[in-house]
Amino acid sequence: MPVETLCDLLDKLLSFDPEKRMTVEQALAHPYFAGYYDPTDEPTCGQPFQFHEIELDNLPKDELKRFNFGGI
How far apart are CA 58 and CA 2, in angstroms? Predict the structure, then answer.
């Protein structure tokens, strides 16, 4: 893969202006990922993640650590 292809991807991903920044879908369709990305094998989520449902503000520090590192 040419360096120019990678540079093009990085340039579009790291654009300071969010309106000009590449979306996830655009990034996955970029030629740099042509050999790795299969749109027919894309995982889906049954429901959107709602962060506000998880109340972290009142958790004790030990529980917060366990919550953050529990899957590691």
Answer: 50
Residues 48, 19, 34, 6, CA torsion sign: negative
Threshold 0.70, pTM exceeds: no
Q: How far does Cα 33 stand from its chain's mean position?
A: 15
Q: Two tokens at 46?
A: 């049954």
Q: For residue range 10-67, what is the model confidence (pLDDT) as tens digits?
A: 999 999 999 999 999 999 999 999 888 888 888 888 887 776 656 767 778 888 788 7
| Nearest by Cα to 64 from 55, 52, 53 | 55
Q: What span, in angstroms and rounded, lies between the C-alpha atoms of 14 and 69? A: 29
Cα dihedral across residues 17, 19, 23, 26: positive or negative: negative
